[in-house]
């Protein structure tokens, strides 16, 4: 199976360890969160399998090419517009979350506009890169940061302050009826497969995505969700955990590197996860940009023989990002994130339905 597919999923899993997912899960800690996570690690790999095996029928083709070749304009225009807006929104949530994290814990005196602008300048270059360059960038960043992330997580697991009794208390709520909010947040860690919408043309799936791959993905999901939900409870207790804005940041601040150059784990933790968050935002907005380009192309926007539509779209992306980051509060961000997660079944349904229609059309 193509390694880049796993990169997409790993980036999403790692990014959401300290983003909105743990906060939502812990907010539902007494409302069936454990069964919700169990359902998510069953349904998530199944959806990944369905999408990968559908995209396998369209080698060397992106979603816009697939739909344009097999469906009419009245169908593929609104579908591609829906996906492009949805993926932009996914990136926007990541941007706002990590800007708030940066300004709260790393540089509280810096203007939020300046911080957002710094993020956007870096991301803008990435958005305009070619697809293969984006894939290589993802691989380089993951090779650099994943060993450090694994070390940091193992350091947290082996810290003597981790109270397994608190985790056992949280586990006693397994009998409660599942929460849809918790399920949708937990299932989001598998959403990286949707990036095949643009990158499928560079993938080579020699084998069908079968049971072995699904089990591997499910195990990764179990480890990610267990780490995301239970470890902060082990450090902070069960009763008060739902009141934390960023549970994993508080958790990392409780760990010390006794023989390290930097004693407090929180600084290394935030910088490393910030690097992976940049990649997550880059992927989301690169995919969104390419989807927008497939339906928006202004011929008059030319300068020295180069069409400037992409540059205009990047500027629009950035302006909206700055405006939203300035105006939105942490509570509004949580509400927006919950709304986005809760409509993901519609997102999956439209994508799977579109691919099934395209497959049938191309066969006939």
N/C terminus separation: 29 Å
- Strand elements, count: 2
Catalogue the unreliable spans.
none
Please list the strands of the largest sheet in the order they lie side by side: 1-2
Large-scale geometry: globular
Average predicted confidence as pLDDT: 84
Run of helices and strands: HHHHHHHHHHHHHEEHHH
- Quickly give the structural class: mainly alpha
Residue share in β-strands? under 5%
Descriptive notes:
- The chain is an all-alpha fold.
- The protein has helices at residues 3-15, 20-27, 33-55, 63-70, 73-105, 112-127, 131-157, 164-171, 180-187, 196-199, 211-236, 247-253, 265-295, 309-327, 330-342, 344-363; strands spanning 302-303, 306-307.
- The longest helix is centred in the N-terminal third of the chain and has 33 residues, at 73-105.
- The radius of gyration is 21 Å and the shape is globular.
- It starts with a helix and ends with a helix.
């Amino acid at each position: 199976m193509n390694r880049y597919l796993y990169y997409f999923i790993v980036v999403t899993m790692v990014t959401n360890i300290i983003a909105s997912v743990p906060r939502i899960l812990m907010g539902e800690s007494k409302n069936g969160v454990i069964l919700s996570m169990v359902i998510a690690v069953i349904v998530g790999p199944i959806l990944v399998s369905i999408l990968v095996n559908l995209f396998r029928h369209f080698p060397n083709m992106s979603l816009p090419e697939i739909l344009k070749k097999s469906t009419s304009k009245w169908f593929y225009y609104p579908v591609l517009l829906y996906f492009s807006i949805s993926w932009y929104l996914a990136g926007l949530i990541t941007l706002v979350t990590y800007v708030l994290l940066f300004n709260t814990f790393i540089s509280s005196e810096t203007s939020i506009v300046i911080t957002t602008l710094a993020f956007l300048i870096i991301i803008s270059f990435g958005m305009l890169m070619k697809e293969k360059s984006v894939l290589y960038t993802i691989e380089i960043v993951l090779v650099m940061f994943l060993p450090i992330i694994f070390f940091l997580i193992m350091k947290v697991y082996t810290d003597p302050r981790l109270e397994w009794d608190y985790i056992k208390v949280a586990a006693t709520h397994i009998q409660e009826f599942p929460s849809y909010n918790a399920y949708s947040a937990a299932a989001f860690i598998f959403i990286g497969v949707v990036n095949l919408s643009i990158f499928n043309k560079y993938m080579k799936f020699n084998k069908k995505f079968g049971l072995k791959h699904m089990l591997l993905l499910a195990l990764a999901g179990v480890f990610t969700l267990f780490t995301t939900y239970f470890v902060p409870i082990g450090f902070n207790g069960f009763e008060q955990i739902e009141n934390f804005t960023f549970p994993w940041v508080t958790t990392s601040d409780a760990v010390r590197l006794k023989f390290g150059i930097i004693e407090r784990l929180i600084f290394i933790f935030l910088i490393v996860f910030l690097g992976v968050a940049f990649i997550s935002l880059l992927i989301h907005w690169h995919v969104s940009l390419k989807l927008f380009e497939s339906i928006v192309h202004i011929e008059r926007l030319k300068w020295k023989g180069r069409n400037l539509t992409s540059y205009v779209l990047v500027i629009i992306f950035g302006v909206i990002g700055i405006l939203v980051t300035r105006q939105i509060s942490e509570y509004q961000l949580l509400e927006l994130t919950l709304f986005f997660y809760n409509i993901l079944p519609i997102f999956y349904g439209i994508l799977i339905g579109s691919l099934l229609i395209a497959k049938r059309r191309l066969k006939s």
